[in-house]
Amino acid sequence: MAKTDPCPISPETLSALADGEESGDEALRAHVAACPMCRAEMDGVIAIRRLLRRSSLRVPTPEGFWPAVQSRLDARDRASRSVVRRLLAAVAAALGTRWGLRLARDAVIAGAAIAALLALLWFAPPREPAQSPAPTVLQAIALDFQENTMSVGGRRLPYTSPAEAHSAFVAAVGYPMRVVTAPTQRVSFIGGRVVSGAGVNGIELAYTLGPHRISLYQVPDAGQTRPSVPSDAGAPRRYQFDAVCGCNIVAWREDGVLYALVSDLAHPTLLQIANHVKQAPLVGA
Amino acid sequence: MLRGKDRKDSTEDRRAEFEALAQKYQRDIFNGALRMTRSRDDAEDLAQETFVKAYSSFHQFRRGTNFKAWLFRILTNTYINVYRRKRRGPEFVALDDLTADLAALNRAEEGHSPTEPEEAALARLPDEEIEKALSELPEVFRLVVILADMQQLPYRDVAEALDIPVGTVRSRLFRGRRILRRRLREYASGRGMI
Question: In chain B, which residues have their Cβ closer than 8 Å to the Cβ of A105?
């Protein structure tokens, strides 16, 4: 719309009005109905929308697209029944059945992240770890969301909210740790577990942020540097752990602990969360 | 977010339920992926990856809510996290450059009055020209145009998919459309269609 035009309605408002996203009062609609410039602008918006919508329907899916998707879903279903998952499920079954099933289901989501972390640990040279949580305590922790209880060393502790579960988990672990605390209500704690490999034990805290998953791993720092990590795209990537990593992992070392924040969130967002985690005080200290 | 809701334990049931919901959106998702990646091969990968990721997170989908919007959220996130790094062309449009472009655009719009209903002229444009104009649109606008205009998602769902406020969706959509309309008008007038 020309700047010299006396019409008071902004073209952006007309754009939103054409989408039905502008609540607009009677005066607005009356003006638009009577004003040729506004009507022309609205027509233009409707025309481009119609054009784009038509053009979006033009391209059919490639030959064999859905069968290819189905094969990959088959592979997912098979992976969730694989030996490793069965083993994890069996271990978890001894601790709390439903959380074990959750573990198996979520394993395909967290699988790459777990593989990544285990690969990290396998590269660790043999050394005295600075600090390692007592394995007997950690192995005995299981969260059962169906029953809303947590069992620690065989005792069942009830909780009434994810926040309470979070606190109870931290208390049960019994050593100072970093956590993801939420500045908003959208972060939710969904579970914690032991991660072990190469003779060290660490923990994973798992959260969701809206539709995204975040896992925070804390592992005794055994000087792991430049491990090769398998990625979803197939080719392994090398990560440098004295600097920020790329692509869905942010890692740092501090006071003898190696931290890794793994998520499907975009890297800039993950960095913000990492800064937040680093600045917040240790809990369970 | 306690998972106290009842879930089908059977993988087969879950799989069947997912396919029944998801299959009808394969064309929409593929087209969305095509517009985002501007490459047929990447689009096919991205679209497949979207369905696989959606299946993996299917337990997080709240039944009865908008499945299409949920799928497009996953598509957009996957595009941003994985494929944007691989794309050809400039990595980003510097904000200063963009502002300068829009100022020039504003000036160019002054005094303009179309001599023919825009709709008729636009409707005659060849597909290739539309695709070209769309692919040249800076990504901040292109993503919004793809989700709102091509896939007809309401502003609220576009905002959620791109993790931006609704007001930003509204202004980016307006600006994206304006750039497109100007570009297509130039093309049309250059060929004597207007």
Answer: 59
List of chain B residues whose C-beta atoms are within 8 Å of the C-beta of residue A161: 2
A21, A45, A61: residue with CB nearest B177: A45
How many whole angstroms separate alpha carbon B94 and alpha carbon B98?
6
CA distance B54 to A62: 20
Interchain contact, A11 vs B31, CB within 8 Å: no
pTM of the model: 0.51
Predicted confidence (pLDDT) per residue in B32-86, tens digit: 998 888 888 889 999 999 999 999 999 889 888 889 999 999 999 888 877 765 5
The Cα–Cα gap between A120 and A122 comes to 6
* Helical axes B166-190 vs B95-109, angle rounded to 10°: 60
Strand residue runs (E) in chain A: 142-144, 149-152, 155-158, 187-197, 200-209, 212-220, 228-229, 237-238, 249-254, 257-263
| Burial zone of A226 (CB within 10 Å; 0-12 exposed, 13-18 middle, 19+ buried) | exposed
Mention every residue, 6+ apart, whose C-beta is less than 8 A from residue B66. B157
Question: CA B103 to CA B86: how far, in whole Å?
Answer: 31
Whether A247 sits inside 8 A of B81 (CB atoms) is yes
- From CA A236, how far away is CA A57, in angstroms rounded? 37
C-beta separation of A135 from A201 below 8 A: yes
